[in-house]
Amino acid sequence: MAELHEIYRVRVSVFVVEQQCAYQEIDAADPHCWHVFLHDEDGIAAYCRVVDPGVTFPEVSIGRVLATRRRQGLGTRIVREGLRVAQERAHASVVRIEAQTYARGLYEQFGFTQVSDEFLEDGISHVIMVWRAQ
User: Fold this and answer.
1) How many CA atoms, within 13 angstroms, populate the side-chain half-sphere of residue 111?
2) E strand residue ranges, 43-93
3) How far is Cα 133 from Cα 23, in angstroms, rounded to an integer?
4) DSSP state of 19
5) What is the DSSP secondary structure assignment for residue 106, as one 8-state letter?
6) Average pLDDT of the segment spanning 72-77
7) Fewest CB atoms within 10 Å of the CB: 83, 103, 122, 130?
8) Strand (E) or helix (H) holding 75
9) Which helix (H) or strand (E) segment is 120 a member of?
10) Which helix (H) or strand (E) holds 124?
11) Alpha carbon of 129 to those of 26, 85, 91, 94: distances in Å?
12) Measuring CA to CA, how many Å separate 70 from each of 23, 79, 91, 112, 113?
């Protein structure tokens, strides 16, 4: 229970407070996710959720990607771990994400390709990207 509280605290801190987006951050998808995080002496350092197919997209998806400290490789590490979990636990060969446009380059490093035009979600520019197993 303490881990779940910390996950929600960090997510709200980043996605609601820092990004100034008033939306239902904790949602109905959460019970259908693998919650993946990197933990250090300060608590959760990076987080993402791997969402079961059919919950937000027909395919497995990764979302709520965050790093509590920027420019330290945490984003790369958590995306790598999220893809590992998607493949090993959810048996994904395709993963779909709604990426904040500024982070598109991070996902492209892993082979994600953009499949939509830019669109606004909660006032922030996003694109849909897809990853396919090699």
Assistant:
1) 9
2) 43-51, 60-67
3) 32
4) T
5) H
6) 95
7) 122
8) helix 74-88
9) strand 119-121
10) strand 124-132
11) 22, 18, 19, 11
12) 23, 14, 30, 21, 23
Q: Which of 121, 112, 107 is nearest to 23 (CA)?
A: 121
First and final CA of the chain: distance in angstroms?
37
Task: Give the total residue count for the chain.
Answer: 134
Q: What is the pLDDT of residue 88?
A: 96
Give the Cα separation of 91 and 96 in Å (integer).
Answer: 14
Q: Which residue reads 């904790």 in tokens? A: 26
Supply 134's token pair. Answer: 């090699």
| 8-37 mean pLDDT | 84
Q: How far apart are CA 97 and CA 103, in angstroms?
A: 11
- Taking a C-beta distance cutoff of 8 angstroms, is the pair 106, 79 a contact? yes
The pLDDT of residue 31 is: 93
